[in-house]
Amino acid sequence: MKALKIDATDSVATMIEDARAGESVEGIVLRQDVGRGHKVALVDIPADAAIVKFGFPIGLATRAIGAGEHVHSDNLETSLAGTQSYAYTPVAAARPMLASRQTFEGYVRPDGSVGTRNEIWILPTVGCVARTAERIATKAAMLLGNEVDGVHAFTHPHGCSQLGHDLDGARAILASLACHPNAGGVLIVGLGCEENQIASLLATIPAWRHGAIRTLTAQFSVDEVEEGIALVRELAAAAVTPRQSVGIDRLVLGVKCGGSDGLSGLTANPLVGRMSDRVSEVGGRVLLTEIPEVFGAEQMLMNRAADAGVFDKIVELVNGFKRYFLDHGEPVSDNPSPGNVAGGITTLEEKSLGAVQKAGHATVTDVIGYGDRVSIDGLTILEAPGNDAVSSTALAAAGATVILFTTGRGTPLGFPVPTIKIASNTVLAQRKPGWIDFDAGQVLAEGFEAAERALLDRIVAIASGATTAAERNGEREIAIWKRGVTL
Question: Which among 184, 281, 399, 485 is least surrounded, fewest beta carbons within 10 Å?
């Protein structure tokens, strides 16, 4: 099999390997060479007609397309425009399956949350002390050895020259990271004169967490690095705790795609969707973000809202993000990226229909804002843009203890929590073994059931302490969404 037709109503098929002109695919003869992840017309498609993939329109034909033709940017365009009105048409959401009894070895925190790591995190309030935080982390990690799972500084250029909502957003992300169960202790490093004052940041962090937090103001310290190391050692001594066996209902999965290709929506994303279903159906939590990358597929999520109130929140979030684009004079459809296009994705509708599959079939139980923390079991939609670093940081801050990151093109990025890179195709997995943790390309050869079992086992192992490729490579970073003026 060289091509896959996903839904009976589709007018295109997706190539799962390269094919040459003259070859027969799905009963039609190719008129051009068509690469892996790209689309071929299965029927004659008139000009201006909707082109269908995943059982839904992915755009309009810009000219008549003959069966066997390559369907891509020269003959297919988006039909997305501005904000929309939506109707709530509830559908049964959960995928029936046997409840999983799978467990993992995690760190149970005083508030009942469960971490997958026991680390010391160093959070600078402002970019001025970013290198100071890094020096403290590097030296402290060498001194502590294996007392904790790691010491990491998460630096950023923000915290000053910001106003209002923009400053509030930066502060909210840092406050939520300071509450994360993967951090057994947190050192907050400030400069002293910045807008994001330590006292203001602490005021947004729940009181129960303050016992695991220490603070340092560099302008008031004789030797801020040595003082910081001493505070980290104090935090590490208090953070010593064993792992305990807990059910996967205690996981919080963040689901993310980056550098997608035409196979992402056929292999890696629906496979991650099965993980979302497994965790949510036993009472766990799943976080979906990248709101601009649901445009064109948002109705699928809206129809799975737990009630009309959740539906209204999804509508406001989606239309609010569209207004954000339009207010800046940008079209809502200016996506996919050049890498996505090279990998076979043509329109935002196509990209979104593949991307939302990461959420599986779970009921949408909540919608939360940027910098907020997850609080309800099931599938939560989180406000954040599609940018890999910004959205993955938002997932971690919201409480994700593992991020499932699918990719068709590959990326080395890693984030505060274990980030499991899942390749959509075996070629990538074999070419970049130093980046990739799991090959979802096996779905095409072995089917979803075997891949589902294997990925769940991999998630459990990593949640229990096995390292990801990004962790082994020292890839740990955050990025904060900059939305306001700079003073």
Answer: 485
The parent domain of residue 213 ranges over 119-240
Quick: pLDDT tens for 12-49. 999 999 999 999 988 899 999 999 999 999 999 999 99
Neighbour-count burial for 313-328, b at 16+ CB within 10 Å, e otherwise = bbbebbbebbeebeee
Helix (H, G, I), strand (E, B) or coil at 60: strand
Q: Is 101 contained in some domain? A: no
CB 284 within 8 A of CB 418: no
- State the Cα–Cα distance between residues 271 and 443, nearest whole angstrom: 8
Residue 367 resides in a domain: yes
Q: For residue 32, how many other CB atoms are within 10 A of its CB?
A: 14
230/257 same-domain check: no
- Please count the structural domains in the chain: 3
Tokens of 123: 């959070």
Question: Which residues contact residue 327 at a Cβ distance below 8 angstroms, ignoring those fewer than 6 apart?
Answer: none
CA distance 149 to 290: 30
Distance between CA 452 and CA 383 in Å, rounded?
Answer: 28
Distance CA 123, CA 121 (A): 6
The answer to whether residues 125 and 156 touch, using CB atoms and an 8 Å cutoff, is no
Looking at residue 111, the DSSP 8-state letter turns out to be T
215-261 per-position pLDDT tens digit: 999 999 999 999 999 999 999 999 999 999 999 999 999 999 999 99
Whether residue 287 is contained in a domain is answered as yes
- Report the relative pairing of strands 12-15 and 39-41 from DSSP bridges: antiparallel
**Dihedral (Cα; 341, 7, 298, 291), 10-degree rounding:** -30
Q: Is the separation of the CB atoms in 248 and 350 below 8 Å?
A: no
Please state, in angstroms and rounded to a whole number, the distance separating the CA atoms of residues 458 and 438: 8
Q: Yes or no: say if 126 and 194 are a contact pair by the CB < 8 Å rule.
A: yes
How, if at all, do strands 119-124 and 150-153 pair? parallel
123 and 61: one domain? Answer: no
DSSP character at residue 474: T
